[in-house]
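Sample entry follows:

:::
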Amino acid sequence: HMTAEEGTVIKGGEQAVFTGSVYAWQTVGPTERKELTTEKLVLYPETHIAETDRHVTITTAQGKTTGVGMWSDLDAEIFKLLANVKGIHRAR
């Protein structure tokens, strides 16, 4: 799921650009969510790739990771933060 202040589809649907308080989440249990926030997210619907050059925060039950710039394969659930990466991990 995702919300943003604005969204634009370009190049005949090859890209969707979301801007302004982008918030994406996935429910993974009755009370647990994986969350991502940023100010701009470019989604490539055909390949399920998402990327940004902005500050990103990823929050899960296990911790919080921040960085600048991200590349993600949504099918494989791979998220690569590209610079200034910091994280906090919570032990169970």
